[in-house]
Structure formats: structure tokens, C-alpha cells
Amino acid sequence: MTELLATPTVRTTHPLDPLSAAEITAVRDHLVAEGRLADTVRVAYLSLKEPAKAALRDAAARPNRQARVILLDTATGETTDLDVDLTVGETVRAVSVDPALTGQAPVLIEEFAAIEDILAQDAGWVAALASRGLAPDEVRVAPLSAGIFDYDGEEGKRLLRGLAFVQRDESDYAWGHPVDQLVAFVDMIERRVVRIIDDGPVAIPMGNDNFEDPEVSGPLRTDLKPIVITQPDGPSFTLDGNVLRWQKWDLHVGFDAREGLVLSRIGFDDHGTRRSVIDRASIAEMVVPYGDPAPYRSWQNYFDTGEYLVGRDANSLELGCDCLGDITYLSPVVADDFGNPREIRQAICIHEEDFGLLWKHTDEWANHASTRRQRRLVVSFFTTVGNYDYGFYWYLYLDGTIQFEAKATGIVFTARYPEGDYPYASRIAPGLGAPYHQHLFCARLDMAVDGSSNAVHELDLQRVPTGPGNPHGNAFTRSRRVLGSEAEGRRRADGSVGRVWEIVNTEKTNIVGENVAYTLFPEGQPTLAMADDSSIARRAAFATEHLWVTRFDEDERFPAGDFVNQSVGSPGLPEFVKADRAIDGEDIVLWHSFGLTHFPRTEDWPIMPVDYTGFTLKPTGFFDQNPALDVPAPVKGHCAEGGECHC
Description:
- By secondary structure, this protein is mainly beta.
- The protein has helices at about 20-35, 55, 110-120, 125-130, 215, 535-540, 575; strands spanning about 40-50, 65-75, 80-85, 90-95, 140-145, 160-165, 180-185, 190-200, 235-240, 245, 250-255, 260-270, 275-290, 300, 330, 335, 340-345, 350-365, 370-385, 390-395, 400-410, 415, 425-430, 430-435, 435-445, 455-465, 475-485, 500-510, 515-520, 545-550, 590-600, 610-620.
């Protein structure tokens, strides 16, 4: 037992609360005292190790506070995965990770600058730049995760690949000035360049792409009138620590350095009875694979969650800029490369917003008209990973609907556009191309629809041919398929039949005798576009299906495996489903893959307007009637004296 942690730490309000600054400091001090955090060792990941689900369901349980830590020795490459129990002051698990078999630790913040320093000292890189009339201090180098490919001598090496962009001055957006036909492979442990691919100088696009320069934007619009959102009585939600309550909903808002927002224990008050919907919801992985086979880019595929840690890279949000209205913020704390706590001020934005009509009807027989306004609770954060920025938005609605929306913006990744037509990129500006790519997300939804005995039914529209029983040919119905095992739980969306997946409670029924359920409505956009036998198809196998259903397991957290950076084989979901466990009437997890396939437009340059992707979960027989009948009528904007003021 470490003396520094011999005294139990002060418990936070909720066992799922993110680690505090004091707890992160205690973990760091403990690791120093154990001799694990030496001068060359960095903290690649440090976050709460969540208590087991059984302990969370036991109201009397007081689970110990634990942290999961991944350490990387930057001198040797030694990687250690360990758990520290803060309550008793002990390291309770420590595993040495073999990068050649398992994968590397996530990319360190310090490696962003280190790759430029290493390259600036390499004679081959300096010569390659000089042949283009450039010096190292005139370019920025993107520190790009390497993946696993058939290049000689890379097995077990911690690598980054570097692509250069000319930056004319400190305020210049360099992304529009790619130094093409040149890439460097850098060993970050040996701090040396192991390979340079240089196919000779080509023209570098040098247009002015600084989108806030008046010469680029033109005169600013002067006819946009202010939109002022006020809630004079304050918001309709309450926040007790990290427990959020709003309009019959209650949930815990967590934050992880890897996943970002984590919503847990999501439930709804149905006439005084709390009914569970989801035990834990997060976006557990995302990958951005590129479709350009040129040797300088054929390896481009970035796991922004598992390799770059979207939570660690979260933005601080500003009122009126990022969030509009009556805003409540949370400021999570993450660890830096040295294990020191770093608060991300106002990283999580919580607010409610009007969302048009909830329901409306004008009835001539009853001589009555009714209208109700929809409203939703928004819990969100934004992150920046290199050139792209992503918003992660969770929505809860008055009628029991849950929705997730990802917002993609920022600057598209560029390359020189070759002469003539090129089938793997868009021409977005003179001489400038943007390779085709995808943004693919995977939501991990630990479902608890009215309890833990859940199953997934696949529903398809079914057309009925004209004939006996359907003489006019107008009939249609739907088919229902029960997914019985994990092998059957690998599914594709099909918009031609309106395919949806119903998550039912196999033990509880509603007023009409049907199983209570929530339905997942997928967008059904393309899955991973790369060849089935490609490296990225093995590493991002989760993205080859729209849906995977697994039996719950505490250790199955990440769809591409725990160590994604330079991972080999097919970790994650392909391994999880090998046992082909039963999933009908069990405690199950849905893994839903969705996203954007991006063929960039000229309108995406020099900065990309937000594009959207996501999914929706709707109650389907979960309630015995419309759960929003009790929403009061809105007040009319113009109310005559003595007249009816409600809609």
C-alpha cells in the first residue's frame, strides 16, 4: 500500500462521477511513489475505471474509486496497462502490453511537436524540402497515426507518419498548402526517420485560404438580426453534481478522456415509476479512413477516439458562440502526458431548446384546436482532432425520444490535385484536391429497456402481392425476425424496406399485451467502403456492419479493442462475438455504426459547413399512451384582453 494514498480519498456524489483534479493528482503521486512514473514515462490515458454494473444497481453498495491508466516509456516503448484503487491506495492490476501483438498506447500530446523536431534534424527530410525550395521552419507536419501495413521493419515499432504543409506565417491556415509526393515515417521511440517516400517536387497550391481574411470572405453581412433566447425563470432542468433531471428524465453525465461524453443510468418517470431505458451510452469509437491509393496517403485512416482521445482534445465552449441560450456548463478534468490534472473549462454544454411542434390537431367535429410545443434537452461537447472538428450532441425529448447527432466541420484534408481527372479526390480549389473519405462512428448502447431482460427484433416492411385477401393490391405488413445469438446480431440497415431494430423487454408487456420496447432508427448510410481484405477492414471491423448485438461483458468497452493505435488482426467486436452467446432475453449491448461518406465539394472550402449524422431511439409500446399529453399548452404570442391566451 502506498503511503500517499493510505488515507481513503473523499468520495464524490456519485460512483460514476469523472475523476476530480485531486484524484488525478493522487493517482500520479501513487505512480511516482511506486517508481512507475519515471522521467521518460508518460501518461497516455488516465480516467475513471467505472464500477461493475451490479454494484451500480445495488443502492447500498459503495464501490471503491478506481482509475485506469496506460503508461508509455518514451525511451524504451514499454507500455503498461494498470488499475489504481484510490480508496485503498493500491495498484490492483498491472499488465505489460506487447505492442507487436496488441497495439500501441494512444498518441501523446507531446508527440505532435516531437515529430516536427525529429524531422527537422533529419538530413533526408531537409534535403527533400530543399528540393522544393523549403526549409523545415516553413512547414508544419501533421502527426498521423500509422496503422499497420506491409512496410518492412515496422512490426512492434511506435510510428507516426508525417505529411507537410507550408505555413507562411503564424496565423496562416497551412492545410491549403500541401507538400505533395512526400511522406516521412518516424519511429517515435528511437526518434529517427525510418523511411521517406519522395517522388519529387510538384507545384504547391499557395492560394489565400484564410477564411477570416476579408479578401477571402468578402464584406460581412449586415442584415442578420439578433436572435435572443431567454428563460426568465431559468431552465427546466436541475443538476445535482453530475445527475441531471429534466421533464421526467434522469441520467448521469460523465466524461472520459477517450470517449468524451458518457450518459449513464438513463430513465424516465412514468406516472411516478422510474423506468430504465439505457444503462450506459457513449460514442465508443470513430474512424476516418481515406480512399486515395497514392503511396503518400494509402495508409491514411485515423481512429480519433482510440488513437487521439476525443475527450482529452475537447474544446472550451463560449456562450453566444458555441452554445446559445440559458446554458449550464460542466468543466471536466483530464490528465496531461505527465499525469497532471488539466481542467477543460466549460467543455460540456447543457441547455434546453424549443424544437417546433410536439403535436397539433384541429377538429371540426369537436370544434376545437390544440397545439403543444416540443422541447429537447441538449447535452453536448466539441472536440478538435487536427484539421477536423466534431460536435457530439445527445438530445432527450418530451415524448420519450432519444437522439444522437454528430456534427462534422473544420478543414478538409488536402492534397495536390493531379492534372486531368482523378477518381479518388475532389477538386475543391485551383490545383487543390480533397481525397474521398468517411467519418464512421460507433455508438455503444448498453440497453436496459424496463430492465435487463432485453432482445432485438428486426422489423422490415413487407409488400403483399395482389391476390386472395388483397384484391386491390393495397395491403402491406411487416416481418419480424428475432435475433437469437451474436452471430445473428451482425446486421445491415436496408432503407428499401425501412429496416429498424426494436429492443424489447422479453418479460414486460404494455396495455395492449405487447412487449414494451424502444426502436433504433438508423440512417442507413454506407458502411466501411474499403476492400474486405484491407488492413483497415480488419482494424475497423465494427464499421463493416450497421449493427452488432452482444451479451453484456464488463470488459467489452471498445468496438475496435482497447489498444487501437497500430493494432493488428481484428480486435474488438469480431473477438467479442466469437463465442456466439445467446442474446434473446439477456442483458445486451447494441453497437450501432453510422456516419458520413464525404465526397468534398467546393463549398466545403476553405472551411466546411457543418454536416450531420446520427440515429434515433423512439419508445415503441414502452408507454401505454402518448407520454407528452401532460405538456401544458403554450401561451399565444398575441393575447387579446379577456380572450383565451393558450393554444
